[in-house]
Amino acid sequence: MHYLRRLFSRFARWRWALPTLLLIAALLHCGTLIKGGLYADDFIHAAYFQNNPVLADKGLLAGIGAGEFSSLLANQFNFFNPDTANYSAQINFGMLPWWTDESAKLHFFRPIASLTHWLDYQLWPDNTHLMHLMNMLWYLLGLGAIYALYRTSGLAKPIVVFALLLVILDSSMFHVISWIASRSMLMVIAAGFFCLYAYHQSIHIDGRPRRIRWYLTSLGALTFALFSAEGGIAICAWLGAYLFTLDQRSWTTRIAHLLPFVVITLVWRGLYQHFGFGAFNLDFYIDPGHNPVAFLDRAVVLLPSNLFELMMGTDLMGGQIRHDIKVPFGIAGLVIAGGLLWLLKIPLKEQPALRFYALATLFSLVPGLTIVLSTRTMIIPFIGFSVLLAAVFYQWSTSVLSRAQAAGSYVVMGYTLLIHGFLATVLAIYMTLTTIDFSGDGDMERGVKSVGVDDYAEKHLVFVNSQKPFWLVFFGVEHAYRGEALPATARVLSSAFTGIEITRPAPQTLIMHAEPAFQFDAASVIDTSNEPAGHYAYLTQHLMGLLRSQHTPWHTGLARSLPEMQIFVDALHNGKPATLRIELTQPLEDYRFVYWDMDAAAYEPFVLPAVGESIKVKGIFPGPHHSPVSE
């Protein structure tokens, strides 16, 4: 251990330390750059920028201003909005499922990020490798900005280098870098931490003209971050932490210095709200400006449990802890945080820089509570937390510790080396190598590749159930991007959480019953705490909250009239649909039915039962009063 300490200390003081770390970062994240390909939201963006004619013919691009520069700056991140002309087409085609809350909206305003994507499609529209390269460059710029802040804020050089290495190895970053549409988060990191660096320089650098230049640069960088993505608000949390720690001037001067940043943030928020951007009536995203009560209710439990994930290096989970164990996880997070602060009590007392990073870690967890689970919400807090982990190593190597502190330090260091060092490196290498397709195929193996039938072109494709119904949102745009034929409609009837029974009382009528009810939002209809698949299902369950809030009421008799069928809610269980009636309005030969086969883990053709008969289909969970059902 002492040999490693001396070796690393020597490396930290080497003038090529930063370029070496940036090279390591580039190598660890080069997989998607080499392979290319699109994923999820990327297909929606491609459709918008390229004005895909197949999707345009179905009305799915109406009102977006597809292909128009000015419109796309506002609409690139318009996923669904009842006020946009394409909304009815999204419902009619099946891009949005029939149970989507008609008052729900998901429309973000990220004009600067949108501008970079527009440039992609102007300069290299068919080269996704270069699009991924742009992500990589923003990532490396962000690491440079983080290093600059670390280096000038008063941290010892070994802490700076080790903390940056931990950030590079952070598993949460992989999903962001490999996803072109997540470039906005990389831009927030690059601009945001440059803002913090410039803000620090505006206070500590010599010469009034230079301070003014740095101050104006900092204001510009914050504006850039906010108009790149909503995540830029986390940089305001870091500025707040700076106010209480590194800024040693009078309180009047501190507040006056920060006031223009507050004004910029309020103007950004005012514009955002005035023009109706944001997430409305959803559980997956909660905008505290629109629904402060729901946000505070979520924060009480989610903040401590997110703290636990951050502390334990499981931030890759990004909130995927079930509700029934969030409380003990939260308590554990608070206990571990207390232990870490105890280990660092002397340097925290003596060094404002460490207090800054500790407070910034805590403050920047709060903006991430707006989304129920996502790995990217943990990245900015981890940039602060990595400094605390590095400080434990540095204190151990340079100070005389009590027996208890030494033992605690060994536990933290051992765990850090195992999780954030060894396992993170192995995961990084594995993810990079498995992403690279040495055959040269650029299509990423994600999304809905096979639906169990091939002859669905211009037919009504019906998914009786789906293990991951949210991902069918991308079915049409993904297949249109590849030039593949689309069905007339692509309709998902239910999720596959519970088993369902399908009865056919008349040739064109289907009755679907779930025990105890259908899973159409994020509130679990059954207790999954003792189910082996509970954690796995939790992610998909929460994605249901992207389309409907659990607080949106259902009622019997609710009807949805669609181009190829009518859907009626005939019975409820505890306020959730338990029985659906489907009236098919087109000739039966125009339909293609498929279902998710739990045993085959794939979509398979579904044959309707004979009139007067029933078929049972397995779900992930059998339900409380059902034995496992099968086809």
Write a concise keyword list for the protein shown above.
alpha+beta; six-stranded antiparallel sheet; four-stranded mixed sheet; disordered C terminus; Glycosyltransferase RgtA/B/C/D-like domain-containing protein; membrane; transmembrane helix
Task: Describe the protein.
This protein is α+β, with helices and mostly antiparallel strands. The protein folds into two domains: 355 residues, no CATH class; 158 residues, no CATH class. Helix content is 51%, strand content 10%. The strands form three sheets. Strands 8-9-10-7-6-13 form a six-stranded antiparallel β-sheet, with no helix packed on it. Keywords: Membrane, Transmembrane, Transmembrane helix. This is Glycosyltransferase RgtA/B/C/D-like domain-containing protein. It comes from BD1-7 clade bacterium.
Would you summarize the structure shown here?
By secondary structure, the chain is α+β, with helices and mostly antiparallel strands.
Helix-strand makeup class: alpha+beta
Total strand count, please? Answer: 13
Main beta sheet, described? 6 strands, antiparallel
Give the radius of gyration. 26 Å
Choose one word for the global shape.
globular
Please tell me the total number of domains: 2
Between the first and last Cα atoms, what is the distance in angstroms? 59 Å
Strand % is 5-15%
Query: Portion of residues in helices?
Result: 40-55%
**Helix segment count?**
23
Indicate the low-confidence ranges by residue numbers. Answer: 437-445, 624-631
Protein name: Glycosyltransferase RgtA/B/C/D-like domain-containing protein
Transmembrane segments: 130-150, 155-174, 219-243, 255-272, 325-344, 356-373, 379-396, 408-431
Keywords: Membrane, Transmembrane, Transmembrane helix
Organism: BD1-7 clade bacterium
